[in-house]
Amino acid sequence: MPGKRDKELEQEVLNWISGCLGEPLPPGELEDVLKDGVILCNLINKLAPGSVKKIQAKGTNFQLMENIQRFQAGAKKYGLPQEEIFQTADLFERRNIPQVVLSLYSLGRITQKHPEWTGPTLGPKMADKNERTFTEDQLRASEGHLNLQMGYNKGASQAGHGGMGNTRHM
């Protein structure tokens, strides 16, 4: 099973989901509570109303897995980067619960970028753009410096090298 599970983090995520939905979650392990995808669909609908049109409360494994996929699509639209979204099997088949927790934690952080969301958020405050403005003089001040990091090679050149692929004769 990839990754080690962090029970505290799992509890933090469950508390956050419960806070967002405004109701307690059923007791149990994270993967059991979220497995059918219903709570996840309700969560993404709470964050971004109308994300998931149809939620299967009961049904075959396939129908329940569709809930998870609808949640994933909604989360992606909400701004969760593709590489942070867990795979359906990570949750449904318990392949990688830490990845599921990480996804939900990231989603909790992304709520901070949505001013319309007034509910609870997760994790440290996300950085806003940090724009700096320099005067023309400040920008020009650096032009006179020879920066050794950028290509100044003290007179060394490729002269006498003899082209690509040849050995260098010393």
From TrEMBL:
Residue ranges of domain Calponin-homology (CH) in the record: 7-112
One GO location term (cellular component): actin cytoskeleton
InterPro entries: Calponin-like, Calponin_repeat, CH_dom
A Pfam family assignment: CH
GO function terms (MF aspect): actin filament binding
SMART domains (alphabetical): CH
One BP term from GO: actin filament organization
PANTHER family (alphabetical): CALPONIN, GH21596P
Similarity comment: family membership: Belongs to the calponin family.
Official protein name in the record: Calponin-homology (CH) domain-containing protein
Source organism of this protein record: Allacma fusca
